[in-house]
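Example record used in the benchmark description.
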Amino acid sequence: MKISVDINEVKQNGTVAAMDSVVNEVVFDIPKNVLGKNETAILNIIAANRWKRPIYFTSPNSQLGIEDYLRSDGLTYRFVPVKNGGVNRDWVVDKMMNKFVFGNADKPGVYFDEENRRHLNTLRWQYALAAMNLVDNNRMDDAKKLLRKCDTMMLQENFPYGMVSRGQQHNQISGLFLQACYKAEDKDLAKNVSASLRKDLDQQVAYYASLDEDKVITLSRESEIVNGLRKQLQSLEQYYNSPISDSANLEQNNPVINNPAVIPDTQPIDNKK
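Model output (structure tokens):
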């Protein structure tokens, strides 16, 4: 599939930034043999729009093959004629620092049930991804500000970093946030996140070890995930606390850095990045 691009127009109407490397054509393959009416409707909207108005998705996986052209604007992904655009950095920093709200998670004594914790996890996940992208683009100070903003707006007593959840999704997202803290060289915040994660994972390991054989078998998958996360946490700490200073080279060659990061299940996919 191909979509033509009027480069002057997309720059003038704000679809892309002045410094973006805009493509002449958006080229993609639809990774399936059958399309539903909802999917053909989306393709129709894209074809008819001709870059006149913004088109957004709530997930980075469109299931239509256009993932390379989806750029994060915070909690949403805008369809842009820029390949592998990643994060709309200036926009994201402004909105995440000045516009985002957290449902009173910064107020002491507020209880969040499982459903609301999933939505808060989506925020934590997006802040982590944005911060890591900023670090990769030499904006360390902005990355630290985002991470501190997220941490300040979610009190540990209301929403700790370490917490039991379905499939250990909560702890996996916090692990991604921890990785962002290390990359941004915020060692104090990383220490707090790591301590909370380790406390919860250690408690879970002790719990599974106390069960009788029948229950151990039933919960073997959960136990396996917990033990894997605890090993990853240890490896992550050792990796970033290494005296070797060439962090870019380390990151390229050390598989610990590329540990799986789940998509929060408020999104309609469960792929691993």
